[in-house]
## 1
Amino acid sequence: MHTIIHPLNQSRHSLSAEATSLAHFRKPSYDCREQPDAVKLVVYVPGVDPNSVEIEAHAPDLIITARKSHFVRVNWQALHLERAQRDYQLRLRLGHGLDYRSLQAELHEGVLTVVLPKRVPANGSARLPRVA
């Protein structure tokens, strides 16, 4: 028998609403690589138009929503394609060390590339002091 333990700070209503909203999306395949001065994220979203991509950044979290263009065929029949035609949504917790305001994104043939530069330390230099 499986037991589900819900955290105390969330109500059942918000959990069911979140599960319902996630049922409308599917998680795309992606690759995340750290570079010396940035983090590069490659997300595979075939069938998505550049105008239908939304990127939201909330401090440590990055949310990418990519919506497909849905159309009904002339000879439409129910083929249970509803799951394959769902829109994409990717939620990642990348941390506070990135400059989300300076992110750059490009979509080319179903491949979304997002580059997030790293923040420069408050003192302005990224070098460590030399120890003699």
## 2
Amino acid sequence: MNNFKLKPVGKRIVVKPADKESKTSFGLVIPDTASQDSPNKGVVVAVGPKVGFDENFDPESLVKVGSTILFSKYSPTEIEFEGEKYFIISESDVMCVIE
């Protein structure tokens, strides 16, 4: 994704949302509307130039392109770009990085 055309500014992050639909062990599909209280999950596709840089800088917790993250369900601004759905969120709305 080095040639990704969306370039976030400041402490913003562009995220490709993960598919929230899941299946039970019996094969029943649970739609994303069934988990209204769960946070959003996605893969980081672009980060702003100021992400990770403040007085508490910790290089180990830096959100990077390719990181899978959980973020607040109320935070994203949803956009459509070149036929794909993306979220733009603030760095402060990232709850954790999944490794």
## 3
Amino acid sequence: MLTFVTFNQATPIQQATFTTYNKAWVEQYFVLEEKDVYTLENPQASIIEKGGEVLLGLDITGNSVITCAILNAGDDIYELSKMGMNQDHKGKGYAEQIVNAAIEWAKTQDAKSIFLESNRILTNALYVYEKCGFVEVPMLPSPYERADIRMELKLQ
């Protein structure tokens, strides 16, 4: 079971995993895009100062093993984004834990809904999102070339 902390609660070493894990994950499957680089190099300005949050999942030793961002999209709608993890910890259920932690955080912000954009080749991730209650909705224009599926979870 993981413990979750926000970006500002995390140590600098833990904070650095947000960028490290996400860059590695994107580059494993796709190409880092301009929006990725800005967000990952400026989480305080691009996420937190705009009413979002970065969560980090810590194992029992205090190491960050998985991260994700919840972006404030306006009108009480949030976006689940930038989920990356230490590849040595795959298959331990951490993705489901952090998605549920992100949902709970969004509820504390009185979010109406959470959406995410992904790619259909990421079948394991899509399975986790479905398990957490997300359903596919029509795709809207996206800032990401790689996005070909949009999912949403209604909270209200």
## 4
Amino acid sequence: MTKFPFGPTYDEMLDPSLLDKDIRARALTALHENELDPINLFNITWRDSANDVRKVVLPSALTGIDANIVVMLGCGFPSGSHKVGPAYSTLIEGLVDGEIEPGVHTILGPSTGNFGIGTAYISNLLGFRAIVIMPDNMSKERYERIRRYGGELELTPGSESDVILTLEKTRELMQNPKNKALAQFELFPNYRFHRHVTGNSAIAAVRGVGNGRIAAFTSAPGSAGTIAAGDQIKAAFPEAKSAALEPYECSTLANGGQGQHRIEGIGDKMCTLIHNVLQTDFVVLIRDEETVQGVKLFHDGTEALVRAGVDRAFALGLRELFGPSGICNVLGAIKMAKHLRLGPGDNVVTVATDGFDRYNSVLDELNGRYLEISETVLDRWTHDIFIEAADCDVHDFRKPQIKEQLFAQKEKDWVKFGYTKEFLDSMREQKFWDAQYDKVPGYNQKISAKRSKPPAR
């Protein structure tokens, strides 16, 4: 392990062709041969070895619409999820700012899963002890991967909808000055990573697809980092719409609803501090059972997809690419395309946060809930969940008086954690968010200036 900060800048994560060719080559080799080689920090990017954005464009035989659903794939990141990006960004900013010191501080990672995995992974590569604080009712594969990366677990009661308890526990642990939290729900490196890296990667992903523009971007807020990509997309395409997706069973943004649900990684009973609600045009509700059924269909329902008209090779290629939150994002994209009446050539972009590798136990649980999952059942799920997805439960948040409920929800959630009403009110103007984003070039310079050489093989 290295004792000094090194790793990519924001620009290099966006475009790894900017890297030294030897570093890029070594990183690509390590991605497949040794995931715990610190050189993998330079694989934190949406781009593949050919420098193309990793994506699939879902066929109309599956989506039931003429518009293109372009899904950026997070499973190609080191640690298997794009959440490793904001985990790295938060830690590296702390390092170059001198707020986090190697050999002194322990890293805390409040999470419901993928950010915690990313925290354990990045901490391992940069030589830090990591403690991941997460609910005790998540998929067992998530806990196993955190331990595999050397992370320790501090479990709080509940499931996805009980993330507030993880924040309270994090605040408790932070009373020890040697603990530093990568607080994804409230620290702005998460926003910067996704606005710069994910947003600009989304813009690149539609080049040569349809009309080459983005009509809508959909993302289910967990920390609300990913949805920051919509800010950058709308700067490039002012007509684009940004939609936040949340579980029907826990519709906090839509109407203040609370409840338990099965979509791991989203729907946390809050409006997170870093959520720029100014840019959220729609809130769409997705039923949790349909997301897990969708994972089953993509992983085990190849024949059902083929019967619906999907190319067999394409259907087989979907098997390892999606978890429940990715399916949620796809369903939201289909609903938005229908709601906006998009047609041929129009593009809706979304992301698959991770792949199937951490959801075997989720499918085992699904299989136990049904007496039989026959080919007829899979055919019905294909038709009902995807092809005939209704554009119901789409809430228009473009009017100021309606958006006000998001501001009120944020105030309710964060004043109790010590944030002042004056600070929260400053978020009501876009200049607040642009000022956060404008820090990217400065951090590029700081990271480059303090970067040590990667260790030799």
